[in-house]
Amino acid sequence: MQRRIVRLGLFIAFLCGLLAAWSPSALSNPRLIQIDTRDGIRNRLLIFRPDDPAAAVVLFPDGSGRLELTHVFNQPAIGRDRDIPTGLMAGLLAQNIMIILPDTPFDHSSHLGLNGWHGSGIFRLSADHARDVGEIVAWVRSRENIPVWLAGIRMGAFSATNAAIRLGHEVDGLIIAGGITQCPEQRTLLHLCPEGLMGMDLFDVSVPTLVLSGGNDDPFTGDPYPETMIASALSGAPTVRGRIYPAMVDFESWGALPPGPETLTGVSEDRVAWEMVNFIQGNPPAPPATTESPAAPGDLTTPMGKLFICLY
């Protein structure tokens, strides 16, 4: 009970910090909702909505994905806030980006959370998980006429990428931050995904994708520039941008909350948010396809994807 009171106090301090950072008109109170995603399965979502959102980001933090969202004294509370990137969220909200934090679905609320088994596989990589995400995206679209992006940090990048592969153009874009190219031995995903994100069908991602990396190598394996490898594998995405930062700073500490484990090295929370917002604004949803006359016989124009790798 004492631990819950302490956690509630930390979360209230977090909310107070957010409200202090912006005027009341820039940020409405966070809202905790519950939606049905599969037969008999529900997901809880924590919604941070600025007054005039320009886009929405469904954000998957690092760790197990188990947030234990609940209400305490009629206020939303996060039971497990250790992996939540509060600094990044603050930067996104300041730029009018709506944030959706999903908790684990009711059938994966054990201590393993999204990293737990789902039949013969890992839930993060499953079609059911992508279906849950699809229902979350549909819920947002039913209420907001704005682009909806998926973003994943480290372990959360598996969820965001899996959903982007399976949902296709149901989402408007994908952001991978600190993606893992090889799973360390202590991680459950090692059993089915020893090559990390590189073991996924990245060529099936069909939406604009931003790949962010801190440091010069994979923190677990030492592989050089893992994000360069990931970006190169995204051959089906219309636009791919890779950002690699060589310096080392912790970007997760913000306000009264203790810092989480280092997710990206080499970039401040403001810079991460700026990169995300800049890429989202530069890749608006494509207009609906229109019926046009066939190209002239001599017109051999072919759509080409673009790849940008920027080293700082």
Report on the architecture of this protein:
This protein has 312 residues and is an alpha/beta fold. The protein has a single domain (2-284, 306-311), classed as 3-Layer(aba) Sandwich (Rossmann fold), CATH 3.40.50. The chain is 25% helix and 22% strand. It is built from 6 helices and 13 strands. The strands form 3 sheets. Strands 1-2-6-3-9-10-11-12-13 form a 9-stranded mixed sheet, sandwiched between helices. Helix 2 crosses helix 6 and helix 3 packs across helix 4. The longest helix is centred in the N-terminal third of the chain and has 20 residues, at 2-21. The radius of gyration is 19 Å and the shape is globular. The model is unreliable at 17-28, 247-262 and 295-312 (pLDDT under 50).
Name the quaternary structure. single chain
Question: Count of helices?
Answer: 6
CATH class: Alpha Beta
Number of domains: 1
Instruction: Please tell me the CATH architecture by its name.
Output: 3-Layer(aba) Sandwich
Q: Which sheet architecture does the biggest sheet show? A: 9 strands, mixed
Mean pLDDT across all residues, rounded? 76
CATH level 4 superfamily: Alpha/Beta hydrolase fold, catalytic domain
- The low-confidence parts are 17-28, 247-262, 295-312
Number of strands: 13
